[in-house]
Amino acid sequence: LEDFFAYDQMAYRPLAQFGWQVDEVSWRCEDVCWDDYAIVVIRSPWDYQSDPQKFIDVLQKIDRSRARLENSLQTVLWNIDKTYLRDLHSRGVTIVPATWCSPLTRRGLEQAFAEFRVDQIVVKPTVGANADDTFWLRFDSADDQFDRVVKTFVQRSAFVQPFMQSVIDEGEYSLFYFGNTYSHCVLKSPKSGDFRVQEEHGGTIRSYEPQQDLLVAGRRAIEAIEQDTLYARVDLVRLPDGRPAVMELELIEPSLYFPYDAGSPGRFAQALNDLF
User: Fold this and answer.
1) Which of 70, 72, 153, 175 has a beta carbon 3.0–4.6 Å from 230's, enabling a disulfide?
2) Half-sphere exposure of 155 (CA within 13 A, CB side)
3) 90: how many CB neighbours lie within 10 A of its CB?
4) Chain centroid to CA 65: how far?
5) Are 55 and 76 in contact (CB under 8 A)?
6) What is the four-CA torsion angle of 243, 134, 264, 9, rounded to 10 degrees?
7) Side-chain half-sphere of 109: how many Cα atoms within 13 Å?
8) Under a CB-based contact definition with an 8 Å cutoff, are residues 95 and 248 in contact?
């Protein structure tokens, strides 16, 4: 977790109050006996995107053990590829519009500008985290920027979304749910000149009391998940017409931003304890 902001340890004390002993284990550690654990909670393996298949192999090993895996393997397999956004859309959830590119080409990028009727787009890997290999392109960006994006995705799938100006003007909202029950919300804003809201990229975070339309949008996204979850984070932004839309639904390893709501570690611990 070097160079990352992680708050998982804030849940250890409330978990201990329920009688839980917590160990922190790297997913890359190969000599773990997962049968020794009652539950294995995926929390902050923020390098999994560099070797997603190995990560899945580890989760499958845990799933075969006596330990309970949370969130479930089925949930992870669905959420690990951003094509899950298409499923959400088909289930009536408003998402940021997206087009899927495999392989990604210069012509495909140009068509995305025309399809969305915008002059700015964002290109992301379908399997990724931390905004790694995420690009903000303008229609008039230099040729070498387009070439860099295409080269990045020569052997990887990508998807393209219109750039949401509201991320700059208003920020991105993250709503958290423990045991499918709403817990808290934060507002994330990028630093000047950037569009990435993560702290590692200079973004700022603050607690936020969400408006009713954000709560309704968050609830719809949670209800569209076909499995129960110990934790979920719904990232929302506002479309140009003001409606909230799902940017991403984080069910694998989202930061839960415990410092921004004093009661959130306890609610997380309660949700975990309620599983048993």
Assistant:
1) 70
2) 0
3) 9
4) 26
5) no
6) 180
7) 27
8) no
92 phi/psi in degrees, rounded to 5: 90, 10
User: What is the pTM assigned to this prediction?
Assistant: 0.91
Q: Are 144 and 176 in contact (CB under 8 A)?
A: no
Do β-strands 39-41 and 68-70 pair in parallel, antiparallel, or remain unpaired?
Answer: parallel
C-alpha neighbours within 13 Å on the C-beta side of residue 206: 8
Helices (H) and strands (E) in the chain, counts: 9, 11
Distance in angstroms (rounded) separating the CA atoms of residues 200 and 4 = 6
Q: What angle do CA 182, 184, 185 make, to 5 degrees?
A: 120
Residues listed for the chain:
276
Distance CA 250, CA 168 (A): 21
Closest CA to 239 of 214, 205, 207: 214
Residue by residue, DSSP assigns 72-141 as: -HHHHHHHSSTTHHHHHHHTT--B---EEESS--HHHHHHHHHHHT-SEEEEEESS--TTTT-EEEETT-
In angstroms, rounded to a whole number, what is the distance separating the alpha carbons of residues 59 and 76? Answer: 9
Mean pLDDT by 10 residues, the chain (276 residues): 88 98 96 97 92 96 98 97 95 95 87 92 84 86 90 88 91 96 94 66 86 98 96 97 96 96 98 98
| 107, HSE (Cβ side, Cα atoms, 13 Å) | 2
